[in-house]
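step 3/5: co-fold with inosinic acid
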Amino acid sequence: MMMNKIVMATNNANKLREVREILSPIGIEVISLAEAGICCDPDETGTSFHENSEIKADAVYNAYALKNHSNIEVIADDSGLCVDALGGRPGVYSARYATKGQECAKLLDEMKDVPDEQRTARFICDITYINVYGSDFHFEGVCEGSIGHEERGENGFGYDPVFMYGDRTMAEMTSEEKNKISHRAKALDGLYKFLKEG
Ligand code: IMP
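step 4/5: write tokens
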């Protein structure tokens, strides 16, 4: 089993939880920013998931090095929901689309006149991994689905209650089910294969 110890560059407790659920069974220990003793919240000024995840990972790698005079492996997740009928919005602005907790209601309202066959959407996740030598590697995962007509389910976070995967929303899945098919799980599978190859 691998024994990597990686800091995750996020202040989002749900992302941290999901990444831990996926990586700890395969021997990768994920440390929070608090556990690493770092405070870091850089502006996401990029125009793509790729750019924004790299901004977050680089900021933490550099903050850790400055504080500890040593280096540590880092991962960052930038992700979001791209809705075809909205020309790909909210996309990289998913976290800033609405007041927290109101994103599903706002999206359903914007989509109220969109017919079923035009409600296709996908979650996209870009994971940046930085090794101890400071080299960046990217892994992308995509999960195809559609936008439902109402909020359903209590699990997950963000847009999960309106994101249909088959005949259920992601919020109606257990975390074990979501972690088998999610954009995040697919991106992390790429990272796992990369680390395993050494
Ligand atoms: P960021 O990557 O910090 O810019 O934030 C991504 C935003 O996209 C989150 O705040 C959520 O609103 C949304 N998002 C990303 N992944 C998921 C997911 O797995 N389920 C539901 N919403 C998600």
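step 5/5: annotate
The mean pLDDT is 96.
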